[in-house]
Specification:
Layout (H helix, E strand, L loop, with lengths): L14 H12 L6 H11 L1 H23 L9 H10 L1
Helix pairs in contact: 1-2, 2-3
Length: 87
């Protein structure tokens, strides 16, 4: 059985990396900043940036819909998609 032991390490990072970690926590991709940095190290920065950019885009689109008071009625997604394809 392999036990993983966590140790505390204090490092300085670029402001952009801290903002990326905060976004990961905000979107539920990481439980904490520490967890976010571990994910960045394990997955690689480019993959994490790609995933956060996807969620940034989704969040922006959801905010736009909120501003227009757009509401989706339950079970109507298929109709909306068909209407959009017909355009």
């Amino acid at each position: 059985m392999v036990y993983m032991v966590s140790v505390t390490v204090s490092v300085k990072v670029r402001k952009e990396l801290m903002e990326l970690a905060d976004k990961m926590v905000k979107y539920g991709l990481a439980k904490s900043r520490s967890h976010a940095f571990n994910i960045m190290i394990e997955k690689g920065l480019s993959k994490v940036v790609e995933e956060v950019e996807f969620w940034d885009s989704a969040h922006e689109k959801a905010e736009e819909l909120k501003k227009t008071n757009f509401k989706i009625r339950h079970g109507r997604l298929k109709e909306l998609l068909e209407e959009d394809r017909a355009r």
